[in-house]
Design brief:
heterotrimer, A mainly alpha (362), B mainly alpha (363), C alpha/beta (258), A: mainly alpha, flat, B: 363 residues, mainly alpha, two-stranded antiparallel sheet, 71% helix, phosphate transport (chain B), phosphate transmembrane transporter activity (chain B)
Chain lengths: 362, 363, 258
């Protein structure tokens, strides 16, 4: 007897004794779902506390609990956890798709109502509460001008800034710039609107404007620039960093000065990526309402001069029409929203496709 | 055995081939070489000419260009500083004129002869609605991001990921319009139901009317920031090194365990950044909340009754009829919002930078 | 602690592409078996089919019969995670979990299996690190990030992580191809010690290495690009390197091909 006594100590082994594992049968999951649904219906209708929506919600919770219990009993804890998390992750997806699909559906179904030539050909000038007509021509003009000017300001500034950070900047100062560009990404659009209001509309422009506050499309463009700048800098920065070092070194080795190397070799290589970043920034700026509301002032008539007098924009048009009491305004708001989304999406899709086609590195 | 270096040599060129695939890379040297016509290039730039090397010029295109980029870089800092300075400059006169305590007064009437306005209720509403929105959106967003990166079939994942990216680009005014016209109906029903059965809990109490409530605002906010957080997190999750995922699987991890061991720890800084960015968006969101909240003044945790307000929504609502003091008051409130978002952002960035240094030094 | 692996007519696919065809071989317990052959001949694919890592890639599948001590690895009722716990794997590039410390890396597998007690984990970590010849180098910095080690140390850390769960078989997919000669030597020594406990299958591009460490060698090859890889010859290492029976093997070994 005593000879069999060894110093064998149980080791913490993770080894399974067999490869086979007990599995829940395929029909288990639907069965549990069905049972959960029946029980939920019983509870909800039995107590009369709600309708079909509540049944689904309760059933989903019961399903998760039931699935975990069944899998835990048959397959063990690890498999049960795996199944439950998998179910949770799938349901998160379904949960989010519902409202987002609703947004898209409403946008399209309500938006097509006023999708006519009149909408794109007229402004809201002299359109009263009882007028079914009226359009967004002036708003489209405003959006295009404001975003265009903002792009003209942002693109050179942003690219130069990124070049400094990537190619020249060293040490703390460059780090500070990178850091604050990141921080700037998070500045709320309304704050940039307030900034331009305080700086341009109320202080600078009254100097040339007989002391009157200078609401204008240009002011809106300034506010949008503040919002676009960090996006442009960051995307340019990332693209410049992706340009392979041998390319630069090849040019240096030929005796080409650094600035020329940057302008003629590095920038063109990174160009597609930069264009993508710029387009995404434009798409975001085009959808901004708050800064335009604060500094462009809105307006019902067509004003093609961005430097003087109030201007509207598509996003602002949506907001103003949504707040209007006329029974015709919701239709105008939805159609403008559809137009705006279409504009933004075309830009975004084009940018993404461009990015996909010209993938540098990675 | 001669294989190994050969292989690595191939791997090395592999990186460059990507670049040479670009029409520029190959032609780059040629292009640069064919620019002697440029008058700024000295003709005898010491190419094998012997004698002393040309001395660096103290002024030239190089310096000018460098200075230009430096100016652009400095502009960012100047803009941030200018935002703070100009907001303060316009806010101070209004704050001086305020006859009530700016921090505690519950109300907003800066346009009267005796201006009265307080930021307390607005800041409270801002924080409450953003916190609720994130509470709802973050788990769901992470779930979707994991679904897209690790559960869905690859094609479907890519396609849906693209769709989510597009939704992230939808302007907030559209979400506001949808919340006001469509989403309010189910939320009103749900609020009434909550009130009937859970009315004894203060946050679901009250006698109505329901609908344009903190709940509607927060839900709309949640739906808005959802694509942003999802899109960023998905990207981070996809970047998890396959080697690490395979290491976990090879240890016998289930899919969920693989995600917990390899994907989530790797993606944590990115996810924090995504959430913080979402928080920044939520805190500063203006139009969607101006369209869905009840716009009242008062500190209340009631989620379902008409009411709620935020700093940004109040600016959009009150701006139209604001006089000079009114504008100053709104700018003062914007300054508070700016400070809040600045703190949130800087915190987030510090977390990310620290984290990045840790992983970079480790790698 | 070590088991026999038998493959019968194993073919593996990536979508429509057939990577290996009709591989039949037996890996004896407590031996080192080397898989050699030119690039793209399916050595790694075969290796990955053994612990079902092949199917991790989208569209990848395996046909034929693979057993470990007569248990079918690809049986419908088999738990994949159990297979992988039984058959551990070390990869081409060292891949410690970047967010984990050295200690956490080693015990990651045990933690997955629900081992929580600190003392057990510490004991297991020390045992695994000692087996991987890494203990003396890292015992003072177990809390430091695993990614901070040198390449060779990282690879030994990964080996420690793999053997910490005490598998029956250890698969190694070109474990030294990313390492310098000294680290390579350390790992080869390690393999020599480990084969007392484990069955080891190693894929290598380095024929000297195969000759040094393995007991048996399998030579894989392909006719031309796009064709599936086939097993050309499988024999004792000495036989393969001194007197192969197939002309193709000889050509490859003497460097006339591949």
């Amino acid at each position: 007897m005593s000879t069999t006594v060894t110093t064998h100590r149980p080791r913490p082994t993770a080894q399974p004794t067999t490869l086979r594992a007990r599995r829940l049968p395929r029909y288990a999951a639907p069965l549990i779902a069905l049972a959960a649904l029946l029980v939920a219906a019983g509870i909800v209708y039995g107590t009369g506390i709600g309708g079909p929506v509540l049944v689904v919600v309760v059933a989903a919770l019961l399903y998760l609990a039931g699935l975990f219990a069944a899998a835990n009993a048959v397959e063990g804890r690890r498999a049960a956890r795996n199944r439950t998390w998998s179910a949770l992750i799938h349901s998160a997806f379904v949960l989010a798709v519902l409202p987002l699909a609703s947004v898209v559906w409403t946008l399209v179904s309500k938006g097509v109502e006023r999708l006519d030539g009149n909408f794109f050909g007229t402004s809201m000038n002299n359109i009263g509460a009882r007028d079914p007509n009226g359009g967004a021509y002036h708003a489209i003009v405003g959006t295009l001008e404001q975003v265009g000017i903002a792009t003209l300001i942002t693109v050179p500034l942003g690219i130069l800034c990124a070049i400094y950070v990537v190619e020249y900047g060293r040490g703390r100062f460059s780090f500070a710039i990178r850091f604050f560009v990141d921080v700037m990404t998070g500045i709320p659009s309304i704050v940039s609107g307030l900034f331009v209001l305080a700086f341009w509309v109320l202080i600078v422009s009254p100097m040339v404007n007989d002391g009157r506050p200078g609401f204008s499309g240009f002011a809106a463009a300034l506010a949008l620039s503040v919002l676009m700048l960090p996006t442009v800098v960051r995307s340019t920065e990332e693209m410049l960093r992706l340009v392979p070092a041998p390319l630069r070194e090849g040019a240096y080795a030929l005796g080409v000065p650094k600035w020329k190397t940057i302008l003629r070799v590095v920038l063109p290589t990174a160009l597609p990526g930069i264009v993508t970043g710029v387009m995404l920034a434009i798409a975001r700026a085009a959808g901004e309402t708050a800064p335009v509301l604060l500094v462009a002032g809105g307006g019902a008539a067509i004003n093609v001069n961005p430097f003087e007098n109030n201007q509207s924009s598509l996003a602002l048009f949506v907001y103003q029409q949504a707040g209007d009491a006329s029974k015709y305004s919701p239709a105008r708001a939805w159609t403008a929203a559809l137009t705006l989304v279409a504009l933004v999406l075309v830009l975004t899709i084009a940018a993404k496709l461009l990015a996909r086609r010209n993938r540098l590195g990675r | 055995m001669g294989d190994t270096p050969q292989r690595s040599a191939h791997a090395g060129t592999g990186g460059i081939t990507v670049a040479t695939g670009h029409e520029w890379a190959a032609g780059a040297s040629a292009r640069v070489a064919e620019t002697p016509g440029n008058p700024r290039t000295p003709v005898d730039n010491g190419m094998g000419g012997g004698g002393a090397l040309p001395r660096a010029r103290s002024f030239g295109a190089e310096r000018a260009f460098r200075g230009l980029t430096l100016a652009a870089g400095t502009a960012v800092l100047v803009i941030i500083a200018a935002i703070a300075i100009f907001l303060i400059a316009r806010a101070v006169p209004a704050l001086r004129a305020n006859t009530e305590n700016f921090w505690t007064y519950e109300g907003w009437s800066p346009n009267e002869a005796q201006p009265k306005f307080g930021i307390g209720t607005l800041a409270f509403g801002t924080v409450l609605s953003s916190a609720l929105a994130l509470l709802i959106a973050v788990p769901v967003a992470l779930g979707i991001a994991l679904y897209l990166s690790h559960y869905a079939p690859r094609r479907l994942g890519t396609a849906l990921g693209f769709l989510i990216d597009l939704l992230a680009a939808v302007p907030s005014v559209v979400f506001g319009l949808w919340g006001r016209d469509v989403f309010i109906n189910p939320v009103r029903d749900f609020s009434a139901w909550l009130n009937e059965y859970f009315g004894w809990i203060p946050i679901f109490g009250g006698d109505g009317p329901f609908g344009r409530s903190i709940m509607l605002g927060s839900l709309v906010l949640a739906i808005m920031v959802l694509p942003i957080i999802t899109s960023l997190s998905r990207e981070v999750f996809l970047q998890t090194p396959t080697a690490n995922e395979e290491a976990a699987l090879a240890l016998g991890a289930t899919r969920w365990e693989m995600i917990r061991t390899a994907v989530l720890p790797y993606g944590r800084p990115g996810v924090i950044a995504a959430v913080m960015l979402g928080l920044g968006r939520a805190l500063g969101e203006t139009i969607a909340l101006a369209m869905t909240l009840g716009i009242t003044f008062g500190v209340s945790f009631n989620l379902i009754q008409n009411g709620g307000n935020t700093i940004a929504a109040n600016i959009a609502n009150a701006f139209g009829e604001a006089n000079d003091t009114g504008r100053g008051a709104l700018i003062a409130s914007g300054l508070v919002l700016f400070t809040i978002t600045l703190i949130v952002n800087i915190t987030a960035r510090v977390i990310i930078y620290r984290r990045r240094e840790f992983t970079e030094s480790a790698a | 602690m070590a088991k026999r692996i038998e493959a019968t007519n194993v073919s593996a696919y990536y979508g429509g592409f057939k990577a290996i065809e009709n591989i039949t071989l037996t890996v004896e317990p407590k031996t080192v078996t080397a898989l050699i052959g030119p690039s793209g001949c399916g050595k790694s694919t075969f290796l990955r089919s053994i612990n079902r890592m092949h199917e991790v890639l989208p569209g990848a599948r395996v046909e034929g019969n693979l057993t470990i001590d007569n248990q079918d690895i690809y049986d419908r009722d088999v738990d994949v995670t159990a297979v992988r716990r039984m058959i551990g794997m070390v990869f081409q590039r060292p891949n410690p979990f970047p967010t984990m410390s050295i200690f956490e890396n080693v015990v990651a597998g045990l933690r997955l299996n629900g081992v929580k007690k600190k003392s057990i984990l510490e004991e297991a970590a020390e045992r695994a690190l000692r087996s991987a010849n890494l203990w003396d180098e890292v015992k003072d910095r177990l809390g430091k990030p695993g990614a901070g080690l040198s390449g060779g140390q990282q690879q030994r850390l990964c080996i420690a992580r793999t053997i910490a769960v005490e598998p029956q078989v250890v698969l190694m997919d070109e474990p030294c191809s990313a390492l310098d000669p000294i680290s390579t030597l350390a790992i080869e020594d390690l393999m020599f010690q480990l084969k007392d406990q484990f069955t080891i299958v190693i894929v290598t591009h380095n024929m000297q290495q195969a000759a040094r460490v393995s007991d048996r060698t399998a030579f894989f090859s392909i006719e031309k690009t796009g064709d599936p890889g086939r097993l050309i010859e499988y024999d004792n290492t000495q036989k393969i390197f001194s007197n192969p029976s197939v002309k193709k093997t000889e050509d490859y070994i003497t460097g006339r091909f591949g």
